[in-house]
Amino acid sequence: MNNLFLSMLSMSLTASYSILAVLLVRFLLQKAPKKYSYLLWSVVAFRLCCPVSFLSAVSLFRLKLPGISPSFSAGSGGMSPPAGFSAVLPNFVSPQIWLIPGTALWLTGAAALAAYGLISYIRLAGKLRMAVRLKDNVFQSEYVQSPFILGLANPKIYIPYHLDSQTLHYVLLHENYHIKRCDHILKTAAYLLLALHWFNPLCWLAFHLFCKDMEMSCDEHVLDQEEHISSGYSDALLSFALRRRFPSPSPLAFGETDIKKRILHILSWKPPRSAVVLLSTALCLAAVFVCAAN
After folding, report:
1. Longest Cα pair distance anywhere in the chain, in angstroms?
2. Alpha-carbon distance 32 to 30, whole Å?
3. Which of 1, 12, 35, 113 could form a disulfide with 195 if both were Cys (CB 3.0 to 4.6 A apart)?
């Protein structure tokens, strides 16, 4: 178990540098569609959960980064172990004074965060047992203030009562795209990674921005489907913000979050030019490769 804790620390360190790199690239992509920023978080997830990677002469970890060894020993198939802590751990691990309590603290925090997610999910699902089916996988409930998706294998869309037809149309475009893209599964996986790396503040920032980019990229998809709907769509989001008195009822149920920034983004959104799409794609792919490689 102690070795698992050390491996987790190593992955968290390399992921931290990847998060900082993603933040820089994300800043450069401010004017680009949010789907590119959303894609960038995949390399962070890779670093947080995968203890090995491929070797490349072009890598973020070729730089002289604190706590990162500049040389890695390649295993079979050209794979190498985590880059993090290989240079600094020997100075701290030899007494092993902190290792056992550190492992216990890590497990306690991870279990607490996982339990919070599970319990809040079960409580919310219990409140929604009396929800009324509107059509297909769409349900209405008095407990719902703002639309959200709940469930993994059979995700359901929950909405408030008495939505007008136009607002309902926008909601279903948005939420069904979440389901088509498997965002309900990706967010659950991201939350589990956050539970494992709860001690790393950069992981909390990454989770927040990941959810933000997820929602904004879905907003852009809705705007792509029809012309001249930014005003009506932003009005729909604003109406949900005014309804809701509490934040999202579960970290695994997601819906209308960060309304103010999303409305500003919607009102200023324009279809990207071909050159922007090409440059954004190239920059994203390059960033993912550089951060993934040892």
Report:
1. 66
2. 6
3. 113
| Distance (Å, whole) CA 247 – CA 202 | 22
CA distance 287 to 232: 36
- pLDDT tens for each residue of 176-234: 999 999 999 999 999 999 999 999 999 999 999 999 999 999 999 988 887 778 888 88
* Closest residue by Cα to residue 2 from 108, 113, 101, 110: 101
Q: Is the distance from CB of 72 to CB of 54 less than 8 angstroms?
A: no
Q: What is the pTM of this model?
A: 0.86
How many angstroms separate the Cα of 248 from the Cα of each of 40, 214, 273? 25, 15, 35
Please write the tens of the pLDDT for every residue from 275-284. Answer: 888 999 999 9
CA atoms within 13 A on the CB side of 145: 14
Quick one: which of 121, 167, 125 has its CA closest to 146? 167
In SS3 terms, the chain reads as: CHHHHHHHHHHHHHHHHHHHHHHHHHHHCCCCCHHHHHHHHHHHHHHHHCCCEECCCCCHHHCCCCCECCCCCCCHHHEECCCECCCCCHHHHCCCCCHHHHHHHHHHHHHHHHHHHHHHHHHHHHHHHHCEEEECCEEECCCCCCCEEECCCCCEEEECCCCCHHHHHHHHHHHHHHHHCCHHHHHHHHHHHHHHCCCCHHHHHHHHHHHHHHHHHHHHHHHHHCCCCHHHHHHHHHHHHHHCCCCCCCCCCEECCCHHHHHHHHHHCCCCCHHHHHHHHHHHHHHHHHHHCC
* Phi-psi label, residue 21: left if phi above 0, alpha if psi -120 to 50, beta otherwise: alpha
Name residue 80's beta-bridge partners: 53
Count other C-beta atoms under 10 Å from residue 267's C-beta: 11
d(CA 249, CA 44) in angstroms, rounded, equals 26
